[in-house]
């Protein structure tokens, strides 16, 4: 089941993150240990529509559609900014400081996402 939504081009990265998490049991366990949280993403596309996904690094070590149940941290940003972030062309801290990335919940947990996004960076063709 693909997590990609054609209205949100950068959403293909969620498939890559999911594939990276499921590549091996060892990788998944490392990610669970590093993250230990549920990360929700709400993306807004150029048409003003929003869609959500979440990365469960607390229990399952997988990516799902929707915000999930009680996310530890929710990150809201544009589809294009998310694409740049996953591609390594944007810096999360700069996006946050400029108001392009909004974070609700445990801000410190959001910093734990970097190694997970880097795994998708090498595979995502955005």
TrEMBL record:
SUPFAM superfamilies (alphabetical): SCP-like
Annotated PANTHER family: SCP2 STEROL-BINDING DOMAIN-CONTAINING PROTEIN 1, STEROL CARRIER PROTEIN 2 SCP-2 FAMILY PROTEIN
Domain SCP2 as annotated: residue spans: 19-118
Organism: Chaetomidium leptoderma
Matching InterPro entries: SCP2_sterol-bd_dom, SCP2_sterol-bd_dom_sf
Protein name stated in the entry: SCP2 sterol-binding domain-containing protein
Any Gene Ontology CC annotation: cytosol
Pfam families the record matches: SCP2
């Amino acid at each position: 089941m693909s997590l990609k939504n054609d209205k949100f081009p950068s959403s293909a990265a969620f498939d890559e993150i999911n594939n990276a998490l499921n590549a091996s049991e060892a990788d998944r366990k490392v990610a669970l240990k590093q993250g230990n949280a549920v990360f929700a993403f709400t993306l807004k596309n150029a048409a003003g529509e929003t869609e959500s996904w979440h990365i469960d690094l607390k229990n399952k070590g997988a990516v799902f559609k929707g915000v999930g149940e009680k996310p530890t941290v929710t990150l809201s940003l544009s589809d294009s900014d998310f694409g740049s972030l996953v591609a390594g062309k944007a810096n999360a801290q700069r996006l946050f400081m400029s108001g392009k990335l909004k974070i609700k919940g445990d801000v410190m947990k959001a910093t734990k996402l970097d190694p997970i996004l880097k795994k998708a960076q090498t595979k995502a063709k955005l």
